[in-house]
């Protein structure tokens, strides 16, 4: 018999009560609402402190880059347009010198080329523009007045699907009355 077994057998039947002064103190707990608020506040503070605005900053940088490239493209187109105007003016001056006619109007050429540049820049701006109808109101009203519609054709039509079902149900009741005999009464 071992030493451990010998000690266990002497104390097994003895009940031991620990004094109150040797027990650990009760744990202090906050009410549930305060505990939840503390946990929630800690989570919000932790999430706010460590959030980085990398994505937002990269999007803003990309927008600035796109605006800059659009502005640069617009400037390049204006420069090309001015060069084209100068070339057209030189050609017109050469033609005028050769022929002596000054009937060609350069203002129309300049305004049409301006419109072409701005339309090519804003090709997406005309997606939702309304398109006016080609026919006038007078043509539409005249077509309606020319057709002869007889309203009496529609007034005499009294057919209803409910009437048809009512007739079928009456016929079914009469047939059942004939099958079951005179003891069965009609409703």
UniProtKB/TrEMBL annotation:
GO terms for molecular function: ubiquitin binding. It comes from the Eukaryota. InterPro entries: UBAP1 (IPR038870), UMA (IPR023340). Residues 11-60 form the UMA domain. Keywords: Coiled coil. Residues 74-101 form a coiled coil. One of its GO terms (cellular component) is ESCRT I complex. One of its GO terms (biological process) is ubiquitin-dependent protein catabolic process via the multivesicular body sorting pathway. Transmembrane segments: none annotated. This is UMA domain-containing protein.
């Amino acid at each position: 018999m071992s030493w451990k077994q010998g000690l266990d057998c002497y104390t097994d039947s003895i009940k031991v009560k620990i004094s109150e002064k040797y027990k650990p103190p009760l744990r202090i707990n906050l009410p549930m609402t305060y505990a939840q608020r503390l946990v929630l506040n800690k989570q919000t503070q932790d999430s706010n402190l460590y959030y980085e605005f990398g994505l937002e900053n990269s999007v803003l940088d990309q927008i600035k880059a796109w605006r800059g490239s659009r502005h640069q493209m617009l400037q390049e187109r204006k420069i090309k347009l001015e060069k084209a105007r100068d070339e057209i003016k030189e050609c017109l001056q050469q033609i005028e010198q050769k022929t002596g006619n000054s009937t060609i109007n350069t203002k129309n050429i300049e305004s049409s080329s301006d419109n072409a540049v701005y339309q090519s820049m804003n090709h997406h701006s005309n997606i939702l523009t309304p398109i006016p109808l080609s026919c006038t109101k007078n043509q539409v009203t005249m077509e309606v007045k020319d057709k002869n519609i007889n309203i009496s054709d529609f007034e005499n039509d009294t057919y209803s699907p409910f009437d048809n079902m009512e007739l079928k149900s009456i016929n079914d009741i009469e047939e059942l009355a004939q099958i079951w005999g005179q003891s069965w009464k009609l409703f």
